[in-house]
Amino acid sequence: MSAPIFTYLPVLLVFIPIILGMLIFLVQKEGVRIFLALLASLIGFGGLSWMWPTISKGLVLATRPIFLAPEIFLYFRVDALGLLFALVSALLWIFTVIFTVKYMEKESFKGRFWGFLTLAVASGIGVTLAGNLITLFFFFEMLTVFTYPLVIHGETGAAMAAGRKYFLYLFVGEALLLFSVVFTIFLGGTVFDKVGMLPTTQSPNLLRFLLFTFVLGFGVKAAIFPLHRWLPEAAIAPTPVTALLHADAVVNVGIFGLIRVIYNVFGPELIQSLGMDGLLIWVATVTMIFGSVIALRQDDLKRRLAYSTVAHISYTLLGAAVLSASGLVGALIHLVSHAFMKVSLFFCAGAIDRGTGKKRVSELGGMGYRQPLVMVAFTVASLGLIGVPPTLGFLSKWYLWMGPLEAQQSIFLGALILSTLLCAFYLLPITYRAFFKHAEGPVERQRTSWFYLLPIFVGAVGGLLLGVFPKPFLILARVVSESFLGG
Amino acid sequence: MSTGNFLYGVAMLLFLIGFYTVLARPSLIKKIIGINIMETSVFLFLISVGSRRGGSAPIILSGVKDYVNPLPQVVVLMAMVIAVGTTALALSMAVKIFESSGAGERRG
Amino acid sequence: MEKHFLILTVTVPLATATLIPLLSIRWERAGFWLASLALLFSFGSALILVGGVLVDGRIAYHVGGWAPPWGIEIFLDWVGAFFLLLASSLSLAVAIFSRIYVEQNLEASKIPLFYVLLLLLAGGMIGFILAGDIFNMFIFFEIFSLSSYALVAISGGLESLKASFRYLLMGTISSLFVLLGIGLLYSLTGTLYMPLLAQELGVLPYSGAIRAATALILVAFGIEAALFPLHVWLPGAHSLAPSPVSALLSGLVIKMGVYGMIKVLFYILGGRGSSEIGALFSLMAATAIIVGALFALRENDIKLIFAHSSVSQIGYVILGIYLFSYFGLAGGLLQVLNHALAKSALFLCAGVVISQAGFRRLEDLRGIGRRMPFLMVFFTIALASLASLPFTCGFASKYYLCKGAIERGEFWLAGIVLLGSFLTLLYCVKIVNYIFFATPAVGRGGGERSYPEVSPWMMVPIGVLGFGSLLVGIFPGLSFILIKPAVLGLLGMVR
Fold first, then answer.
1. Can you tell me the distance from the alpha carbon of A49 to that of A473, in angstroms, rounded to the nearest whole number?
2. Nearest to A67 among C403, C407, C477 (CB)
3. Residue C403 to residue A185, Cβ atoms within 8 A
4. What is the DSSP string of A449-486?
5. Which one of A32, A295, A340, C134 is at 20 to 30 Å from A256 when CA atoms are compared?
């Protein structure tokens, strides 16, 4: 890898939104709050897109280490992997803000909501731009902390229970993660500047143990089976928060951490020589099948989508864990595609809920008549998630299927196909019911606000367009796979 | 058994008696007495550390060769002052506790 | 020149304490003003002294001009400077906070007494920090212990009297252990002056008598530091004392036990027997971390939660010290700083709430964050620091402790540190949930409770502590100006 280009832009990109987010708490006027939140998201996205041309050439941007105390320093380093995740977060963040304007209109404590939303996504971007383990851990934990008030925003008993579960799972994960981080630093690695920072001379069992704690630590956030329980519970939170959890930041950041661990901390060779790649693949496969099967049985729309996330995020893990170039490209593209589609699907669910008060799949009969545009977008997004050409989902699955073939592990190809079929089974009936079943009781057509429709369509159509013109993300994914697996 | 060791033994015995009293007796007054026994035993110990068989008081006089060590005595003097202070504080607290909880209940 | 401040920083508070009762006869506020001025003086001279330490490394003052081994020496080095700065600044903050608090919560006749005791407590602690021989350490130990027993009981309630009596019993036993240990050490070496003592002990074989003396003194300081299972006096005393006193007790007084342990382990023993002592005490500290946090999690009274939490947090400090390594000691000292700032800010905030609103159960705190936002922001900063979230001092200290434990290959201790901070987080979130994320409690009239304005005399010390906590939290490296040479100095004493 070439030497990084020096810049302090990443610091600004993370801390300006954080400062704006803190300002939101002091502001009383709703308009100003929205302005600040939107400004933060635009600054984030603008800065990240400005970096794209440099990074896509395979270069790396980095700050100098900012020492807070001996061994504890902040260091930002933007490489293709980080930028890819950050761009997805920042882009969807803008539309989450737009959706939130209307969705939270009648809620109380909006100042708090806007503030924590901004802080949370900004910390998520901080994780992706982090250049060493300590910075990554700092923003990782801040993301958890700032998301907690959003999850319990309703302050009802159910919300508090979901919050408790969220909290218990994630913070146990973070304790394990801190252990792994300290241990890795003890073994002599902290900066993500090479593939595999750990000394290979350590005893294999110690390294296996370290990988295990890392996988548990990040895996909680990435909702891998059996650590996924908090994610469906958190579906009780307001829709923008579920979008944040499933697509903008939280789950993505978990899988991002796992990719960093597999490639930057351990490195493909070490993982293979430890014989741990098989374990990761099996974990991903089990999660994939398990999430899909549970999703089939859910009647609550948001919970069904949540289990679908459990399944889809582990596609990414699978792609990353087969340690082959197309697998990794597929993993990253799938993450992008999933984020766009899932945001759209959740926003649809939110719009349906706000428009008609329906939350269950079984109540959705006639919804195609009541909210036609929403249901059209829902269908497009479903097809994208299943992977029908020409969506981005198709492209990502194509690469993902190549991965196990390259690595000659065709049993996992079977698992991928099975899970895709299951995905069709749990998503398409919703469309079918909405368009071809009659509702119980009177039905009138509803106008859906543009604040809802714009983000919904950006997600669905964006996924479609990216399928035709995948260049922005595909180039980044290729750069990532070249730098990690040598082309 | 030499005098020194005998004194140490007595000091330890007293210390344990006092310690037992503080821990085992529910009555506040007895606890304070236990504390005092412990204090006395420590003083005894300190004095015996500095003592010398046949030594006289540490004042330079003609014809005296052996003096006892004055430092432990100073230490004990200071410690006694503190002990008196502690006892006074403990007793006043005990009185307050008796007053507030009624004369019938004399347990801490 | 600055060495004269060594003696002044101790004597001024102690001498002022004797003046207060006299002046209070005529002048109602004499207590507050004299105490604040004396402590301000102590704080100022502490700053000068720390400046001197930064230049010279160690400054000493020989009382009456007699050099040891005949005269009494008081001295300040890096470790002492760290504790001295904490002690003088926290006592000053508490004295200023107390002005309104004691007027609202104590009978007028007790107010001068309160300040007398406060000054004795502060002066005793400063003297304890500066003492150069173990007997003077004992004397100052007694001075601040006795005044803290009296301060716990000052409100005169039956419960606080009982708690204070229990504290007195444990404390007296502890001080007698110290005296006995001192006697043993003296009988072995014939000196009380610490450097000489260390020298004499260094040539003696590590005999049963040295072991016994060490054990006695360490257990005694363990009682003072509320190390599990010697902590039984702490929850009652800390939760029933007036809140400013609780802040001092939790923030400083228990740290004096830790300081005493450091003195014995490094200054006197020179790290001898560290493996056997370390194994036992780190086991006790690990138990303290977990058990204290579990008790805190179970409690419902806000001050009791903080008191149990102190048991847990002091466990971290002691664990760090008994790791006997650079990172362990640095983590331990950083935790001293973190806990001192955070816990005293928390107790002061609790004091405001209890004093202004009159309740201390968690249910009653519902929605208080919306009524007293600024106070509760500081409260939350302190809680975050306790729970070792990123960008707080707590994170840095837990990181170093974890690193120290891993360096020694004791993974389970690293696990305990992290489990403990997870449990801490749990009870902190429980409190935050009540404060910010619950519908406000309903007052007697049926409407929302009203909360009186918080006086600036109370807000300023809390704000200073909160900002201090924030500052050393974001830049823990600042405290390493003192901590790094302190730790290196301590490790340099290990033979």
1. 11
2. C477
3. yes
4. PHHHHHHHHHHHHHHHHHHHS-HHHHHHHHHHHHHHH-
5. A295
Residue with tokens 């500052």: C471
Q: How many residues does chain A have?
A: 487
> Which amino acid appears at position A291 of this protein?
G
What pLDDT digit, counting tens, does each position of A355-391 carry? 888 888 888 877 878 888 888 889 989 988 888 888 8
Composition of chain C by helix, strand, coil, percent to 5: 80, 5, 20
CB-based contact, A105 to chain C, within 8 Å: no
Contact C168 B90 (CB under 8 A): yes
Q: Partners for C (CB, 8 Å, 3+ pairs)?
A: A, B
Tell me: the pLDDT tens digits for C155-204? 888 888 999 999 999 999 999 999 999 988 988 888 888 888 888 888 88
Q: How far apart are CA C394 and CA C400, in angstroms?
A: 10
Beta-carbon contacts of B94 under 8 Å, excluding residues fewer than 6 positions away, are B28, B29, B32, C165
CB burial of residue A362 (10 Å; 0-12, 13-18, 19+): exposed
Q: Backbone phi, then psi, for A153, in 5-degree steps?
A: -55, -35
The whole-number average pLDDT for the span B79-89 is: 92
The enclosing H or E element of C14 equals: helix C3-24
CA–CA dist C288, C290 (Å, integer) = 6
pLDDT by residue (tens digit) across A177-219?
999 999 999 988 888 888 888 887 888 888 899 999 999 999 9
Residue A175 and residue C422: Cβ atoms within 8 Å? yes
Extents of the domains making up chain B: 3-101
Q: A–B contact (≥3 CB pairs within 8 Å)?
A: no
What integer pLDDT is reported at residue A394 of this predicted model?
86
Could you read off the pLDDT of A403-449 as tens digits, one per residue? Answer: 777 777 777 888 888 888 999 998 888 888 888 887 776 677 777 78
CATH code for the structural domain at B3-101: 1.10.287.3510
For residues C120-153, b (16+ Cβ closer than 10 Å) or e, as one string?
bbbbbbbbbbbbbbbbbbbbbbbbbbbbbbbbbb
Interchain pair B89, C162: CB under 8 A = no
| C 373-392: CB under 8 A from A | 389-391
Sheet strand arrangement including A77-78: A5-6, A61-62, A77-78
